[in-house]
């Protein structure tokens, strides 16, 4: 009980640990922005897309569930400063497996609501082109 209270007090002074993690990692910030752009690509935010986004944040990036709303708020507040091309540019120099992971996450979100909109397909196709990844790589098992 006392540790939880200390963690809350520290969070007030240090800021949210999930937000700090995102703010301190430009590649992670860029990936989350790209995932958020995929959520918005069809013009609406579905609950199923947000469930997938939250799961990816927690499982793939270790962002605590309690921080995800604050991370989303951070992305809304500061994400306007980074456009899609700038976000993708951060990935070009990364290894191919890391680039494939971004593409897989984007595809997961696009498919989350069981409706693949043309705008989502266009965004995913453009991202794959910019990352120099084949669509076949999205269906192959991870190495």
From TrEMBL:
<dbReference type="InterPro" id="IPR029024">
    <property type="entry name" value="TerB-like"/>
</dbReference>
<protein>
    <submittedName>
        <fullName>TerB family tellurite resistance protein</fullName>
    </submittedName>
</protein>
<dbReference type="Pfam" id="PF05099">
    <property type="entry name" value="TerB"/>
</dbReference>
<dbReference type="InterPro" id="IPR007791">
    <property type="entry name" value="DjlA_N"/>
</dbReference>
<feature type="domain" description="Co-chaperone DjlA N-terminal">
    <location>
        <begin position="33"/>
        <end position="138"/>
    </location>
</feature>
């Amino acid at each position: 009980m006392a540790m939880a209270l200390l963690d809350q007090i520290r969070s007030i002074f240090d800021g949210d640990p999930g937000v700090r993690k995102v703010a301190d990692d430009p590649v992670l910030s860029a990936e989350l922005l790209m995932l958020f752009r995929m959520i918005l690509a069809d013009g609406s935010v579905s609950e199923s897309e947000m469930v997938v986004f939250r799961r990816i944040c927690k499982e793939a990036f270790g962002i605590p569930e309690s921080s995800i709303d604050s991370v989303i708020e951070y992305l809304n507040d500061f994400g306007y400063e980074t456009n899609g091309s700038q976000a993708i540019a951060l990935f070009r120099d990364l290894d191919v497996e890391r680039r494939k992971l971004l593409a897989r996450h984007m595809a997961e979100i696009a498919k989350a609501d069981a409706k693949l909109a043309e705008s989502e397909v266009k965004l995913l196709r453009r991202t794959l082109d910019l990352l120099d990844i084949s669509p076949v790589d999205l269906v192959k098992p991870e190495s």
